[in-house]
Amino acid sequence: MIKVLYLGAALAGSASFALAANGAAASMAKPRPSITALRVEQPPVIDGVLDDGAWQKAPVAGDFVQ
C-alpha cells in the first residue's frame, strides 16, 4: 500500500514538473511575425514597378517562410 502511495506521489510530482517546464518554454517562444495593412487614398498600380506612392508607404516585410 505504501509503495502505491509513493508511486502516485512520484507520478504527480513528475507531471507537475513537466507542465511547469512546458509553460516556461512557451513563454520564451519567439512571437510570430506579422504585418499591418495600410489604408491608401488611391489603389496602387500593379505593373511590376515599385514607383507608385502606395508602394513607397508600405512597410518592408521579411522573415516570412512557407
How many angstroms separate the termini? 55 Å
Give the proportion of residues in helices: 40-55%
Provide the residue-averaged pLDDT.
Answer: 74
Biggest sheet record: none
What are the segments in which pLDDT stays under 50 over at least 5 consecutive residues? none
Question: Using only CA atoms, what is the Rg?
Answer: 26 Å
DSSP, total strands: 0
H and E string: HH
Q: Number of DSSP helices?
A: 2
What percentage of the residues does DSSP assign to strands (E)? under 5%
| Backbone shape | rod-shaped
SS-based structural class?
A: mainly alpha
Count of individual domains: 1
How do the strands and helices of this protein lay out in sequence?
Layout: H1 2-27, H2 53-57
Structural account:
- The structure is a single chain.
- With 66 residues, the chain is mainly alpha-helical.
- The chain has one domain.
- The protein has two helices and no strands.
- The chain has helices spanning 2-27, 53-57.
- The chain is rod-shaped, with a radius of gyration of 26 Å.
- 0% of the residues are buried.
Q: How do you describe this structure in short?
A:
The protein has helices at 2-27, 53-57. It is an all-alpha fold.
Characteristic key phrases:
47% helix; single chain; 66 residues
